[in-house]
Design brief:
Elements (H helix, E strand, L loop, with lengths): L5 E6 L6 H17 L3 E6 L16 E4 L4 H4 L2 H9 L8 H8 L1 H10 L7 E4 L9 H9 L6 E5 L9 E3 L2 H10 L7 E5 L4 E8 L2 E2 L3 E4 L7 H5 L5 E4 L4 H17 L5 E8 L5 E7 L9 H8 L4 H12 L2
Helix pairs in contact: 1-11, 3-4
């Protein structure tokens, strides 16, 4: 463990994922106390990042901030400038994964499979048909698209689009329509998530849910969502692990993270996104995957901390 004795868990903040971050932070805090660390919880809303001198009182910052405040790379950049140790990936990796359009471009350049899509600067009530825009770009018709912000998480402002009318409804329901969005082809055969710790894959999970798609409710609220260890042939299991690590390393992620994937009916896998600060709640994928590997929650936290000091 080196000289790590005092840990501050930075959580909360003001993003749309604040409540999830609070639950994650509370779980991490309890684990740190159980491990014998001196630990403090600190809500980002109570910290002046222009004068964050109190962070110097701790040996490491455990980042439990979801959303732009913890995953966009800005916090990591500030901590690097201050010479403060923290968990997870660095500024550059976070920047590449937080912006979904930038992330998809990197995957395409590296010939790593990902659902096809296109970006728009903002949502409009009377915008052109996204189905026609997709057909013009890829010379192929699709019957269903997913609409999601270029920068956000936890399926906030994510909508299933079956018609142009759905776009107008999405505009009305979106928390913030005046930002960049991505329209992405729908691949709904199977959904998987791969937790990565110290550049190794924990047991792969298949995600099953009752909702139309893996939305905020399915992720954090519904008790109907199932996270089960995959039942795949060894060759397919190996394929999904290698693809996840390839994407993880392509953007320079380190320490820990979670890779979300889709599989079509022809058994081809697609990288959907990477989370550099995954949820750590009772409903979250990373703790579930670690448990399947025989790693209790507090041991998972211990390993994340140890990886940060390597």
């Amino acid at each position: 463990m080196g000289n790590i004795k005092k840990i501050v868990i930075l959580y909360g903040g003001s993003s749309s994922e604040r409540e999830v971050s609070i639950k994650s932070g509370e779980g991490i805090y309890k684990a740190c106390k159980d491990l014998g660390y001196y630990a403090d919880l600190l809500d980002l809303n109570d910290l002046n990042l222009n004068k964050p001198d109190l962070l110097y009182e701790f040996d490491i910052v455990f980042i439990a901030l979801h959303g732009f405040e913890g995953e966009s790379g800005k916090l990591q950049k500030k901590l690097d400038e201050m010479g403060i140790l923290y968990t997870g990936s660095n500024q550059h990796a976070c920047e590449k994964t937080w912006n979904k359009a930038k992330f998809k471009n990197i995957l395409n350049l590296e010939s790593i499979s990902t659902p096809r899509g296109f970006s728009v600067d903002r949502l409009c009530k009377d915008m052109d048909s996204p189905f026609e825009m997709f057909q013009e770009k890829y010379n192929q018709k699709v019957e269903q698209l997913f609409l999601k912000p270029a920068e956000d998480g936890s399926s906030v402002d994510t909508f299933q689009i079956n018609s142009s009318d759905d776009v107008e409804q999405s505009f009305k329901k979106a928390l913030d329509p005046n930002r960049a969005f991505i329209f992405e082809e729908s691949i709904k055969y199977k959904e998987f998530t791969v937790s990565i710790l110290d550049n190794k894959c924990l047991p792969v999970l298949e995600v099953k849910y009752e909702n139309d798609f893996y939305d905020y409710d399915a992720k954090y609220i519904s008790n109907e969502t199932q996270l089960n260890e995959v039942n795949l042939e060894d060759s397919l299991k190996k394929e999904i692990e290698l693809l996840s690590l390839e994407a993880f390393n392509a953007v320079g992620c380190t320490g820990w993270g979670r890779v979300d994937l889709l599989q079509d009916s022809k058994e081809k896998f697609y990288i959907l996104e990477i989370n550099t600060v995954p949820g750590m709640t009772s409903h979250s994928c990373v703790p579930k995957s670690a448990a399947l590997a025989g790693m209790p929650y507090k041991d998972l936290i211990k390993s994340i901390i140890e990886n940060a000091v390597k």
